[in-house]
Design brief:
Layout (H helix, E strand, L loop, with lengths): L5 H11 L2 E2 L8 E2 L4 E2 L7 H8 L4 H11 L8 H16 L3 E11 L3 E11 L6 E8 L13 H17 L1 H4 L7 E8 L15 H13 L5 E7 L9 E3 L5 H16 L21 E5 L10 H4 L5 E4 L20 H20 L12
Parallel strand pairs: 6-7, 6-8, 8-11, 9-10
Antiparallel strand pairs: 1-10, 2-3, 4-5, 5-7
Helix pairs in contact: 3-5, 5-10, 8-10
Amino acid sequence: MASNDLWVIVIYLLVSVSAKVRNSDDGFLVGQEQQPYHVEELSHSHFHEVAHLSNVKHLKHSVKEILIPRIVGTPGHEKVRKFIVQSLEDLKWSVKLHSFHETVPILGHLHFHNIVATLNPNAERYLVLACHYDSKYMEGTEFLGATDSAVPCAMMLNLAKVLEQQLEQFRNTELSLMFIFFDGEEAFKEWSAKDSIYGSRHLARKWEKEGFLPKLDLLVLLDLLGMPDPKFYSFFSNTESWYSRLLNIEDRLADTGLMERYVSSGVSRPQDPNRYFQPNALRSSFIEDDHIPFLRRNVPVLHIIPVPFPTVWHTPDDNETIIDYSTTENLARIIRLFTLEYLMGTVSEINKDWIK
């Protein structure tokens, strides 16, 4: 992802927290046509049941397998791609590669591979979770990219593993779950419209031509996760209600003591300085990332990226030593619960005990 200068983000944040997030169950819209979609919170018992599910050992193993130099076209890149594909195929997901060639600065002609995995390859609609799996080319420096984006990749694989049983019911439903692991997010020389987000640009263009984009309800893009004390904001008005669900899930987990090493200030939670999902909206898409080609084609986007960026961003220090697994597991819980609540909306009539 790119920002012209990291301090621009900090300054922008200071002057642009201009609105409070609407904390409402009304106005849930999905897809390019912004169709209404009804969703309800998980019941108290099922919320606790899912919140207690965890497999940190699997999460750490996945991070270890991904946390190697994985520049497009290198053996490490191929190894990580095969690990992601095999991990999901072992869980009986349908996995396909979207492959293409492109000439890039410095390294020349490269072969890229987006990884697209679905629970139900024949579904009519999808909730999409996405991240990128390539690492940045830095001449003379070994860059591992723990937050950028080994941890997000591992969190997605971990979600599929932890919720394996709960997700079974969405293998044949009209609405199902899709994972996208974008390739070539990083610039090879200097971030520009042509030297960046190679995979997402190609895939969005391909799906637009094929008429597939209307099947995407919501694109949730994960990036720069893994360090302690991240702060997230709502960037887009048309997904603010969905962002509020993340905020509410964090509140429910914190109120019941289900967040690891999570310290509440003891005041009304919307003013809690320790929370991750802030009750504020930043009305700008100033952070360039893999969501941009889809956003420009009116696919609704939730961009889960901390502002400001981690201090280790695009430095060799973005390695395993900076990963805070308590924070990572907290975020993983929030995203798992959000995913399940979202999907339950389509089967609530036959699973009424799961919702309030």
